Amino acid sequence: LLDQLSPLIYEIAPVHHDELMKAVRKVVRDYFHQSVEADAEMIALAVESLKASGLEEFLVEIGHVDFYNGLIEESGLDKEAEEKLREMIVNKNDFGVEEILDENIVVGEVKNAMLKLPELFGSVEVLNTAKTLTTNKKALDAIRRLEKLYAILEEYGVTKYISFDLASLSNYGYYTGIIFKGFTYGTGEPIAAGGRYDKLLAQFGKNASAIGFAIYMDQILIAHSGKNEKTDYEYEVVIYEPKYRKKAFVYATELRDKGVKTELMLKKKDIDIEEYKQFKTEDGATKVTYINE
């Protein structure tokens, strides 16, 4: 049995044989299959690990790659266009997303869902919004999986640390299910990241499901020490109403001329400005400016 286990699983501690076999059975039962229970236990473990590091305020943002993958398959975009679209979505560049979709004549329901994708972040209510945007089976299955996941995380008592971001994508193509990142104040980079990668081990000769995460101790230390990006440069997010676009562009240009890292975001009607501020502050913004007059 031990020979069949992944070499990635180990424990640094003296244990008795019976204790070891109990641990082995638990690993086989809980982790080496594709259950949502295993997803939930791994995220709960990530939360507890971050709490154990001494952090009190942080969020673990969860997404699912199949929501995006389902829309991509339906859109018919080729690989080159998909890679450009992915970059625009990751950067929450609404204009760039729309331009790529128009260039590739993506229309109808799938276009509308993709245009909304950069906005699908925040509380569990985001999942309800997402279900109204598409009839794609793969995408809806991903949302149902996230709903089940959240219900289990409620039982773990960790949902105060949980949010969702359906535009959370990775440059690594091996993720096959949930994907998550941890963020806290004092650092603009993730403090943890992980997800499900059921096909990765097969590339190394072992056909097995897997899920895991990494904690970035350098970012944890930065968060604790207060030595964050703010000491190196400012990062300001400018959120604007459609009618004040020109004013926002002029203000953003002034900031960039001063050497300030600047991000422009068009405010959507169905997202409260406080949600924008919370999300971007957690993302490392040193200032969030709302232009509405």
Quick overview:
With 293 residues, this protein is α/β, with parallel strands linked by helices. The protein has helices spanning 17-30, 36-52, 65-75, 79-90, 94-103, 108-116, 125-131, 137-156, 217-225, 245-257, 273-282, and strands at 58-64, 121-122, 162-165, 178-184, 192-196, 211-215, 235-240, 261-266, 287-291.
Structure description:
The chain has eleven helices and nine strands. The protein is globular and about 55 Å long. The chain has helices spanning 17-30, 36-52, 65-75, 79-90, 94-103, 108-116, 125-131, 137-156, 217-225, 245-257, 273-282, and strands at residues 58-64, 121-122, 162-165, 178-184, 192-196, 211-215, 235-240, 261-266, 287-291. The strands form two sheets. The protein has a six-stranded mixed sheet with strand order 2-3-1-4-5-6, sandwiched between helices. Strands 8-7-9 form a three-stranded parallel sheet, sandwiched between helices. The longest helix is centred in the middle third of the chain and has 20 residues, at 137-156. By secondary structure, the protein is α/β, with parallel strands linked by helices. Helix 10 (245-257) links the parallel strand 7 (235-240) and strand 8.
- Helix and strand pattern: HHEHHHHEHHEEEEHEHEHE
Q: Give the rounded overall mean pLDDT.
A: 82
Largest sheet: 6 strands, mixed
Distance between the termini: 67 Å
Number of E strands: 9
User: Roughly what fraction of the amino acids lie in strands?
Assistant: 15-25%
Index terms:
6-stranded mixed beta sheet, 3-stranded parallel beta sheet, 293 residues, alpha/beta, 11 helices, disordered N terminus
